[in-house]
Design goal:
The complex is a heterodimer of chains A (123) and B (509). Helices cover 43% and strands 20% of the residues of chain A. With 123 residues, chain A is α/β, with parallel strands linked by helices. Chain A has one domain: Rossmann fold (3-Layer(aba) Sandwich), CATH 3.40.50. In chain A, strands 2-1-3-4-5 form a five-stranded parallel sheet, with helices on both faces. Chain B has 509 residues and is an alpha+beta fold. Chain B has four domains: 129 residues, Beta-Lactamase, CATH 3.30.450.20; 104 residues, Beta-Lactamase (2-Layer Sandwich), CATH 3.30.450.20; 61 residues; 145 residues, 2-Layer Sandwich (Heat Shock Protein 90), CATH 3.30.565. Chain B is 43% helix and 25% strand. In chain B, helix 11 packs across helix 12. The relative contact order of chain B is 0.05. The chains are: A alpha/beta (123), B alpha+beta (509). Chains A and B meet through helix 1 of A and helix 9 and helix 10 of B.
Chain lengths: 123, 509
């Protein structure tokens, strides 16, 4: 479980860095992507076991990335945990087929239990 | 001489002097005769009627010029007429102010007639006097009444003109477009602001139908129906918004208000239509709302990082770490939590403003929700007493997370604005098809004047502002949530006794 690879995509470097540290501390392998436009390429390159995806990003939003991912037969099964500061983020996440949603700012316990829960389900 | 004069002269010549003298003496018209051949034309005869009118005895007047009758009132214009008649030896009739022996004014209708001798020389003047004071008084009174009436009419006209000018200057000064319409919605007048705003001339406006103006911008079925209702029902049109691509000025948002015209307490069959361009105001409000939304969202992002690191710090904290250090981390976490709370409230306001408040209504157990919420608050403030009375004993359809937000907010306020040693009471009951919940505190209370205002966004009671932190949006959010659920929220309060905030919530959506 602890060797699982997680890809985090967020335009905010502070959050990326923090999540990387938190997840690595819990034993996961973490790759980060700050440019949403590169997200799908990175997913193809890295083949992560789980994707953490911010919703509101410039150029291409999290829900647009998710829609494209879900229509990609090879990678549509990768679990996606979406997050956002706005409460309507939960609706957007559900609508676009995210496996789970968490509101910013995260409660670490909640985040880590959701992450491990999704990884257990998919394996 | 005319034939009549010849006959008259013959008749008089046939009369005995005694008879003529009796006629003079018994006449009730004052008669005076002066001798023009003597210096200063003195009186040589006056009859008893003259004595009666003037109060003078014959002995007082014989030998005097008639002018003494005017007393000191010498500047009368008619005196000139009299002097000229005497100088030219002509007849004249004047109304002259004379004064009796006692000094009492009487109006004398004076007839002066010269007497000539065979050589055509004026030997005498005969003055016939009639006291016309009462007639003159009546006439003067009539003239006075006429003049007063004229003055009054003038005054009224002036006042009317002034009030018209005043109204006109108000209408012209207003920074709002005004139209006056008759009962057929034909435009009777338009103020300058209207003409300038819509870049039209008075000729394109006055006398035309409201609905035919421009490119038919006011020809809206709903507006028409409301306008047509004004005269029969006296119901005004209030704050009706029209967004339209107007000729000359482009797309604008206009706010319409229309009332029936009332003049001096009487309804007229006229309608006053006020049109306000709120395009810019609306845009400013929109920018404010956008700012609120962006600012609160942007602030959340770094906060998320801080919260994450703080929690990581706690996880990584060695068991042997200094208690002081642990306490600092705890406190930091608490204040960061509060910051997050404030930001969430701001985000909520911005969502309400933009109409993006989304409710996920599902049935939930109201009593369970209430107990859990109260327990949550008790855990955060263990030293405070919260007493729960009653039960809803039913499921309720609504957005549970939002209702929790309302209950938490009312409870936090009750605790915040009341002394630490006083309890807060929660009363819940089901009445008919609604659940009613009241939160009562023993705090400082609220002035009645503030009852409605405290639900306004960013409103804070002045004295509260000085002593308690807050942004003045909690109750606004509560109100919006309850209204969105079809319920009502209100406050009842007594100064220095406490406040009760209540809301009702329909059981079924």
């Amino acid at each position: 479980m602890k060797d699982k690879k997680i890809l985090v995509c967020d335009d905010d470097h502070g959050i990326l860095e923090m999540l990387e540290m938190v997840l690595e501390e819990d034993g996961y392998q973490v790759v980060t992507e700050a440019k949403s436009i590169n997200a799908l390429n990175r997913i193809a390159e890295e083949s992560p076991d789980l994707i953490l995806l911010d919703i509101w990003m410039p150029v291409i939003t999290g829900d647009q990335i998710l829609s494209q991912l879900r229509s990609d037969d090879e990678r549509s099964g990768i679990p996606v945990l979406m997050y956002s500061a706005s409460t309507d983020g939960k609706l957007i996440a559900e609508k676009h087929g995210a496996d789970s949603f968490i509101a910013k700012p995260f409660d670490l316990e909640d985040l880590l239990s959701k992450v491990s829960g999704l990884l257990v389900q998919s394996s | 001489m005319t034939p009549d004069e010849i006959i008259n002269n013959a008749a008089i010549a046939g009369l005995d002097q005694t008879i003529l003298s009796r006629v003079l003496e018994s006449s009730n018209t004052g008669i005076v005769v002066t001798d023009n051949l003597l210096p200063d034309n003195p009186i040589i005869y006056c009859n008893p009627a003259f004595e009666q009118i003037s109060g003078y005895k014959r002995i007082d007047v014989i030998g005097h010029n008639c002018r003494f009758l005017q007393g000191k009132d010498r500047n009368q214009k008619v005196r000139k007429t009299v002097s000229e008649a005497i100088a030219n030896g002509q007849n004249c009739v004047v109304e002259i102010r004379n004064y009796s022996k006692e000094g009492k004014l009487f109006w004398n209708e004076l007839y002066i007639s010269p007497v000539k001798n065979a050589a055509g020389e004026i030997t005498h003047f005969v003055g016939i006097q009639n006291d016309v004071s009462s007639r003159k008084k009546a006439q003067l009174e009539l003239e006075m009444i006429q003049s007063e009436t004229e003055k009054l009419v003038e005054e009224r006209t002036r006042m009317y003109q002034e009030s018209q000018d005043f109204m006109k200057s108000i209408v012209e000064t207003l920074r709002e477009s005004l139209l006056v319409l008759d009962e057929n919605f034909t435009i009777l007048s338009a103020n300058t602001h209207f003409l300038n705003t819509f870049k039209v001339s008075i000729n394109e406006t006055k006398g035309r139908l409201l609905y035919d103006l421009g490119n038919g911008q006011w020809n809206i079925a709903e507006l028409k129906r409301m306008m047509e209702d004004i005269l029969p029902t006296n119901n005004p049109v209030l704050d009706y918004e029209v967004e339209h691509d107007f000729p000359h000025i482009g797309k604008k948002l206009m706010l319409l208000n229309a009332h029936r015209v009332e003049l001096e307490g009487q309804y007229k069959n006229w309608i006053l239509l006020a049109i306000e361009d709120i395009t810019e105001r609306h845009a400013v409000q929109q920018r404010k709302d956008d700012f609120l939304s962006i600012a609160s969202h942007e602030l959340k992002t770094p906060l998320t990082t801080v919260v994450g690191y703080l929690q990581l710090m706690k996880r990584l904290m060695p068991a042997e770490a200094d208690d002081k250090f642990k306490s600092i981390v705890e406190k930091t976490e608490r204040y960061v939590h509060r910051l997050n709370h404030l930001l969430s409230d701001l985000l909520d306001v911005s969502r309400i403003q933009t109409g993006n408040i989304e409710l996920h209504k599902e049935p939930f157990d109201f009593d369970r929700m209430l107990v859990e919420t109260i327990d949550g608050i008790k855990a955060a403030t263990p030293h405070r007493e919260i007493i729960l009375h009653g039960k809803a004993a039913c499921e309720c359809t609504g957005d549970e997370s939002h209702i929790i937000q309302v209950v938490s907010n009312l409870l936090s306020n009750a605790l915040k604005y009341s002394p630490d040693n006083s309890p807060v009471t929660v009363q819940v009951s089901k009445i008919s098809e609604v659940i009613k919940l009241s939160v009562t505190d023993q705090g400082l209370g609220i002035h009645e004047a503030d009852y409605a205002k405290i639900f306004d966004r960013f409103y804070r009671v002045t004295e509260v502002q000085r002593h308690y932190a807050g942004m003045g949006i909690g109750l606004y959010i509560c109100q919006q949530i309850i209204l969105n659920h079809g319920g009502t929220i209100w406050v009842e309060s007594k100064r220095n006794v406490g406040s009760t905030f209540s809301f009702t919530l329909p059981v079924q959506d």
